[in-house]
Amino acid sequence: MSTMDDELNEIRKRRLAEIQKQHVQQQPSDMQAVYQQEQARADIEAQKQMILRQILTPEARERLTTMKMSRPTLGEQLEMQLISLAQTGRLPSQIDDEQLKNLLIKMQPKKRKTSINRI
What we know:
Oligomer: single chain
Radius of gyration: 29 Å
Number of strands: 0
Largest sheet: none
Number of helices: 4
Strand content: under 5%
Helix content: over 70%
């Protein structure tokens, strides 16, 4: 019986070594894929920032950054809209702070005024 147990243990050890070897080989490729995805995101973000630097004045960029911290989804929408306008050539000049404020006002939904009347 001990030879059978020894053989079984040896088979288990070899199988465990194979599994570990496969895991080690797969891990670098997974890490590489994650790294490539992060690199692609960073490249896209760098391109967005370059375009925004060209189309916004420093004050408008500062307002956009502040707004993105407080309302990230609205900030992303505004960035995408500005980049779209720039790429289609519908921006005659740089957007200053006042123009950015006007765009923000247009993007936000109208607020309803609610009043309560007591009877």
